[in-house]
Amino acid sequence: MSLPPPLAPPGIVVPAPRDDLCLDFANTRYWRGSDPATETLNAPADLIDWAASAGADPMLTAALRRRWEEDPEGAVRAFERTVREREAIYGVFAALAAGGGPAEDDLEALNVALARAPARGRLAARDGRFAWQIAAPLALETILAPIFWSAGDLLTGTRLGRVRQCANPQCRWLFLDDSKSANRRWCAMSQCGNRAKAHRHYMRRKQQAEDRNEQTATDPL
After folding, report:
1. Per-domain residue ranges of the chain
2. Which stretches make up the Zinc finger CGNR domain (predicted)?
3. Do residues 142 and 134 make contact, with C-beta atoms less than 8 angstroms apart?
4. Residue 127's CB: how many other CB atoms inside 10 A?
């Protein structure tokens, strides 16, 4: 039986997320065009570890980890739901990066996740900056709320047209193109870009060799 979620400390202060945080989360599954893809979220603990690395409050992540140890079935349910929400986020932005529109099911799943996340209702000053102050139960939705906020901010903001998907068909990484020319094609030139250049060079050399062999075969003796 699932335990009722305890209340988190009142007045949690959450910094405003980067608008591409949702893309970072979507990319926790990568090399999506490969078989198999590389999955980094394989268990509930992986999800908490990722949230901690993305800047979630250490006290909250530690408390949620203890709670999930007491309620492993609830942890698995929350984890599986969040992975489905991650796939919806990926589907929305991959479709937009390809010049289309998101599937209705993906957009609806994102809206459901946003409705479940705590609202940003109050601003608070912290360390000379402003952040969001929220009142919410100690639950995964509280810790991961910045992911869904960032997805909404990116979809409604001015940088949506900068969302790209790596042109390497084995990669399919999502990223924001902040280049001046706005024509970046690769997640990283040192990885996918150089691989593509090397492949094109190989194919040109191969075609040249085939052309030479064909010409030699047709030349009269």
Report:
1. 12-178, 188-221
2. 162-205
3. yes
4. 8
Q: Are 45 and 35 in contact (CB under 8 A)?
A: no
**131 CB-near residues (< 8 Å, 6+ apart):** 13, 14, 15, 16, 123, 124, 125
Entry field: residues in the chain: 221
Question: Domain 12-178 maps to which CATH number in 1.10.510.10, 2.30.30.140, 1.10.3300.10, 3.60.40.10?
Answer: 1.10.3300.10
137 vs 141: CA distance, rounded Å: 9
pTM: 0.82
Beta bridge partners of 175: 164
